[in-house]
Amino acid sequence: MSKSKLNPADLATPLSEEEFDELDEFLVSDVTSEETLTIEGLDGYLTAMAIGPTTVPPSYWLPGVWGPSENDAPAFETMDQAQRILGLILRNMNGIIISLEDDPDEFEPVFGFSRVDDSEREYIDGEAWAFGFMQGLSVVRADWQALFDSEQAREWLNPLHLMGSEELTPEEQQLIDTPEQREALTKQIPASVAAIYRFWQPHRQAVHERKLAAATQRTEPKVGRNDPCPCGSGKKFKKCCGAAATLH
User: Fold this and answer.
1) Is the Cα torsion angle 130, 133, 138, 141 positive or negative in sign?
2) Where does residue 222 rank: exposed (0-12), middle (13-18), buried (19+ CB within 10 A)?
3) Distance between first and last Cα of the chain
4) Which parts of 28-57 fold into alpha helices (H)?
5) CB under 8 Å to 213, separation ≥6 — which residues?
6) pLDDT, tens digit (0-9, with 9 covering 90-100), for 47-87
7) Residues paired with residue 113 on neighbouring β-strands, in sequence order
8) What is residue 112's DSSP assignment?
9) Spacing of C-alpha 241 from chain mean position
10) Which residues are listed as membrane-spanning (predicted)?
11) How many angstroms separate the CA atoms of 128 and 40, rounded?
């Protein structure tokens, strides 16, 4: 079997530095389009998927990694290469999830660095990361409505919006005019991610419990209408829970 084949048992393995660099190089290679996310943008994009209220299948979000158009899909040289890159992306996603579950306050986004003109000063630059995050959020925007309705949560989203949105008001643009302003906003992003992760955590847990309950119900034998009601009332199911508006 080719080493590039996807093995579910391997998907929880974090990327090594060499694998991270391999994915980075692929994303900016001639095989991809100019619209494909950079490694920083991909990290932001996957983080938006990881911290939101719903579990989004890769088939839904993966096309957005390559760009807005179907024509942006990479021209993989072989099926093995496609499987290899997909595996790296999925493992990167799982690594983000594991890091957040372990301690959201210690989560470290993959930021870039920038310099202005010939200055020796290097600034932390979260623009590409935030752009990827906002792109990821747009994929599932309807699911995030409760966050948009919360004034406090909108404040958490503010540095991500300012750094990553394509359309800003003139007043907002003034807040990111200088590299110092952009670096200050970039430094706020980790705390925002942790807060948004916690905001959605109860919802994610509730969804998980509902899925677990549904799976449990499917494994239990079906109760016939003439069988004793499982609530223990002694009545037949059709005369008890099978007919009642509220279950016991």
Assistant:
1) negative
2) exposed
3) 54
4) 39-51
5) none
6) 999 999 988 899 999 999 999 999 999 999 999 999 999 99
7) 124
8) E
9) 41
10) none
11) 6
